[in-house]
Amino acid sequence: MKLITRHSYLERIISLRSVPDIKILTGIRRSGKSKLMDAFVDWLKENEPDSNIIFIDFNDPAYDELRTYKKLYHYVEAHNKFNSKN
What we know:
Elements (H helix, E strand, L loop, with lengths): L6 H9 L17 H15 L21 H11 L7
Helix pairs in contact: 1-2
């Protein structure tokens, strides 16, 4: 499968990274939303290495136990780099 790089979409997301509002990517199935997020995460890791990135793929069985909000909350708290408990 050929991957089409969407530079304009990535640049738009990058330009909005400091805006505190929640961003939502929408689109039809298999339109590249996840690949766009992967590209953004790669950009963050390269350009802002201190970024606090927590990635959870709910299609991966390894994360099945996080299906309740309490377990998800505790997972995020445990993996948050900026958590005062760390």
